[in-house]
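Before any further analysis, we paired sequence with structure tokens, yielding the entry below:
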Amino acid sequence: MRNKPKWIAAIGLLGAVMATILVVSTAGEPARKADEADIRKAAEALALAFEKGDPKAIGSFFTDEGEYVDDDGTTIHGRAALEKAYTEFFAKRPELKAETKTDKVRFLSKDTAVEEGTFTVRAKDRPADATRYSALYVREDGRWRIAMLKEWGDEKTKQPDLQDLGWLIGAWELDGPEQYARTSYEWSESKKFIVCKFTITQKKDKALFSTGTQVIGIDPAYGLIRGWTFSSDGGIGEATWTHDGDRWVIDSHATLADGSATSAVNHLTRAGDDGFTWRSVERTLQGERLPDIGTVKVRRIK
């Protein structure tokens, strides 16, 4: 993926190798099955080295002149350079989860094989990042090693994933100067949607200000994360969620119960596991500009 963080490229480098854990050989003869088993063992050992944060062990899975090439042509050449890249990555290693899908493995000769597939990585506070890859393996002194790995972005892999909002599941509260808001998020039975219930109360007289329900899911017509809001007074709204750096940008449009139109761009920024900040800008009512709402803190109710 173009303009992806450099650590994503480093993760992708490993991920393409890890993908061989699920490799399916296109050849059925016993010799090819044995080779496939050796590649699987190498991938499992490499994954363990990654979990331990051992760049030298990772480098040992590549040939001396092994290369990694990303989609913009950036190349890391040689085992020493690869070890250096991983050393820098592990120094600021994020918490992550990785998922691989191998499409196919082709044996080109007795001692060479190509694996192709998709690698997806999920890091804390970031949306999923998926790339396509092709890894060339060679057998040296009886051991399979990577000679070249190429990785590139693919529009088909850049689909939004509702799991990126899974950290919202639970109850939250906002204790503002004039209002108290409480929201709860839970998965639908199919986990295709996140259902949010909200209640806003006036602090001065404890009068109920607003209640409603919001449903968040993937719009299959456009491949976007959308939210649909239904207020108890009859107002309805729709919003599109997109990720921008470390925050979610929520472009919202609604029709109030009296028929007037309103809109806003809301910024949601995660702050650890138990908090996030909320800011609302570009607010309008019937086309007239309204003041922005400054950043407010929302905390998880444990």
